[in-house]
Amino acid sequence: MLDVARIRADFPILGETVNGRPLVYLDSAATSQKPRQVLQAEYDFLTHANAAVHRGAHTLAAEATDLFEDARATVAGFVGAPAEQLVWTSGATMGLNLLGYAIGNATAGRGGADSASLALRPGDEIVTTAIEHHANLIPWQELAARTGATLRHVPARADGTLDLDAAGDLIGPRTRVVAFTHVSNVLGIVNPVAELVALAAEVGAITVMDACQSAPHLPLDLAALGVDFAVFSGHKMLGPYGVGGLYGRAERLEALPPFLTGGSMITTVTLDSAEYLPPPQRFEAGTQPVGPAIGLAAAVRYLDEVGLDRIHAHEQALAARMRAGLIEIPGIRLLGDADAERVGLWAFDVDGVHAHDAGQFLDDRGIAVRVGHHCAAPLHRQYGITASVRASVALYNTADEVDELVDAVRGIRAYFGVES
Amino acid sequence: MLDVARIRADFPILGETVNGRPLVYLDSAATSQKPRQVLQAEYDFLTHANAAVHRGAHTLAAEATDLFEDARATVAGFVGAPAEQLVWTSGATMGLNLLGYAIGNATAGRGGADSASLALRPGDEIVTTAIEHHANLIPWQELAARTGATLRHVPARADGTLDLDAAGDLIGPRTRVVAFTHVSNVLGIVNPVAELVALAAEVGAITVMDACQSAPHLPLDLAALGVDFAVFSGHKMLGPYGVGGLYGRAERLEALPPFLTGGSMITTVTLDSAEYLPPPQRFEAGTQPVGPAIGLAAAVRYLDEVGLDRIHAHEQALAARMRAGLIEIPGIRLLGDADAERVGLWAFDVDGVHAHDAGQFLDDRGIAVRVGHHCAAPLHRQYGITASVRASVALYNTADEVDELVDAVRGIRAYFGVES
Amino acid sequence: MSELDTLYRELILDHSKHPQHFGLAEAEGAHATSHQKNPVCGDEITLRARVDTDGETIRDVTWEGSGCSISQASASMLSELVEGQTRTEAATLIEGFREALRSRGQIELDEDVYGDAAALTGVSKFSARVKCAMLAWVALEDALARA
Amino acid sequence: MSELDTLYRELILDHSKHPQHFGLAEAEGAHATSHQKNPVCGDEITLRARVDTDGETIRDVTWEGSGCSISQASASMLSELVEGQTRTEAATLIEGFREALRSRGQIELDEDVYGDAAALTGVSKFSARVKCAMLAWVALEDALARA
Ligand SMILES: Cc1ncc(COP(=O)(O)O)c(C=O)c1O
Ligand SMILES: Cc1ncc(COP(=O)(O)O)c(C=O)c1O
Known about the structure:
By secondary structure, chain A is α/β, with parallel strands linked by helices. Chain A is 39% helix and 16% strand.
């Protein structure tokens, strides 16, 4: 069991009131709140050791470099990776774009000899899924458009689970990339990574996993999962804005041409050409988000101290309680109500009331949920709606908060005059 | 005159000691220190109003969105631009890569009808200069390599000033992009922007200005300077890591195809294609560095309150004092010692002593300077060296600190046994 | 009246449930149409109108769309309001409406001028909803610019 | 001795001013060469060596390069040290050297084992300079791997 009261005391914002009611923050899937320890770590760094890293010989710079590289090792360890296989990014969106553009660059003949293995030819296929966040969809659309490759999609069944039979048919000898999310930010279902990785391995395709919604909620061992690449965002896992991670298997990272270019990622530069450092530096052009990286290291230390197993159990219990309450309410339809392993979020549709209005009603009671398509418009279209309400929990949420949500949801349709 | 003592009190790190000596921080051109007000602004936001912006209907999200957009207006105003012409980036390197890739995308036929105006054809020329930071050089090398355009360079004279006659010859009908730095991070010289803009305008080329080293040190009015695009980094201007700005003239931004793709930059998304929002959102895929942006707004408010005119005067006085001291020392050669307007930095070479050793000697006295090629390897090659020592000041530096530097530099060659 | 009730006035819920001028008229030569979208929540509105042969008077405002009650009610109220007004009057109304909605509760909409749409005054205190209320008005502005 | 003097021992300054084995030998078939670079400060070292016909003994270590006194002295000291050693001995020396330099002042280099190069012990407390001292050693490691 988690000592949630003690945890809450570390998150100053949870004491806020909204419209005169205590804040009930159920929007952690959009962005999590940050504990004191994270803010303090960044503050301490900026007031005691801040200096340009990897570039200076002075004491402060050496100290800053050590702290920055320690942060890399800490965050890498948290996701089951050696330090040198973790590239800092500004967030998951950036990490996925990095992959799309770097593969595009390989296709354009940039990079070293082994980069050719990543080049796409017209007719090659990129496979993603029907449930992706736009960040794991549009970069692949653009890569396909630039290279002449074809984009295909693993369909989702009505209950939100991926159709693995269809995936088996789709993934074939022309497949070069298989990009999928570990956990959908709308459905909360943990996808069958092992099966997808096996299908991709059979045809030698690169796997790219979006770990945004799993990293803060499940014990994560990327090396064991066997994916080639994975991305996550700091701000969703108790960390600061402006930092995220890209994990890559050593030989895949090594083969990848640079994406962003500039300072600190080169060995030799003349006016007309440049040679590039090995990973991870090759992908870290310019000044890195040093403060945010140090903050993120404090965040994963915090998560580790509480324990991901316990966090997962706590959040699953809250999700189960939420489901039990919501399915009793007339006119509420849960999206992705499958019998599957999941994280602590539910998106739902309120019959006869637009999600925006439902969200406003909840906000009036101090309850912060997300409304809209949650950057997964195609998935909402599949459910015949343009928007839904999503309530998502984190380690700092309580059963009482879940009950308050359920209670409030019960009042929505009456308020808007929709008969049940 | 600046009340430097009062300013210093706002920067907690300036009270640190290094090797038992009070820290003399002369490396602000690499990264500046951050005042309490900036740290506090970010802290207040994260502990009172943090939520996902542009995406939620709940009160916290609305508050966060307002603060985030207010920050945009503040930072835009600081550089002389309307809010909607400022795109958030993770830093200057990212902003320059955004331009390189977006122009590449236009060349590949992406973007709207007016994007075609930005497309490059083989034989087209991109002009940059011999004094650029790698961040304003390698992205153009890569763009040239991907599109078949040719990269050319405005040479620098021995005193570090740009050779405008040569620029006049170089910039011609085939020139499509002219990219130059406002102030070199090695030479400190303010470049002739008006002349370069006029040369580019004559042939209809796009101008891209790197304002990294001017934004924190000079009053900046990008609209008045007439450049098409400009970039700067938050961490060099008293702001947090992980945020920067890209300014664009309205019609140029409008013509530019997207670079990073993902959430929050689209209107309609299907599984196979997407339509994009107008600027600035078109260029802001995924979660933005909200905390850092709010911190950066506090930083520019701080700079504005002190006054850029007064800051510039103070820093110029320190630079003049530094020059007067250094040129008296045998074996010291200043790079870019031209009779030109400049900011407060000097790079120099110590005859017979490697820059790394010189920097170590200064560090022993608590003086933090930068040593190396400062991400401008070609420029150092032109001076026949691979590395130099650079001392750079900011508003919080004092005349005493400059004197300490000069004093210490006087001892370098003797320590390393080099006769003068 | 609770905060929430100042947003969801009875009149707004009425209009959203019984939208006026709903259902797009057949497009003829004289009609101008505008499609507007709020990308965050997927609200969409298509609005159509024509300007009379006098070159001034707005006629036959119809619309279609889906979205939250604020955006739907606003389209309904707007259509009633501007039917028969001149371009210039409509432009003034739109400007005034925009200003009031962006005023964060500082400016009230006058019922004598805005009719039922004055009930949207309360939206200005909910900055995340201003776009919803503006959607139809932006569509009309856009349509008139092309009519 | 000041902190700085623990870094810049007399011996280091001597070697950097009078580098031993400096000047690359002509490359013959049996020679292996490695070029290493520290991208931050532009230090460069090219080191060449050959392994005797016994397949073990290191001979004719020469080098060339430019950089700070630490990197130059380290190359000079290393060349003296490994001349005539076996591959295995050199590998052990390199490993021990790397460990000591990364120890942040915890591990001392034994003068009986490392000769003049033991004077580089002080570098381990200056983490930004560890790369400088390692440069030649990495070059030797790389060259031997190909010899
Ligand atoms: C002139 C100049 N341009 C570009 C950059 C790159 O900025 P950043 O590393 O913040 O992206 C720097 C700083 O390193 C610089 O001084
Ligand atoms: C599943 C998933 N993927 C990608 C993203 C994009 O993350 P970011 O906006 O931090 O780049 C998100 C969050 O919005 C997400 O939930």
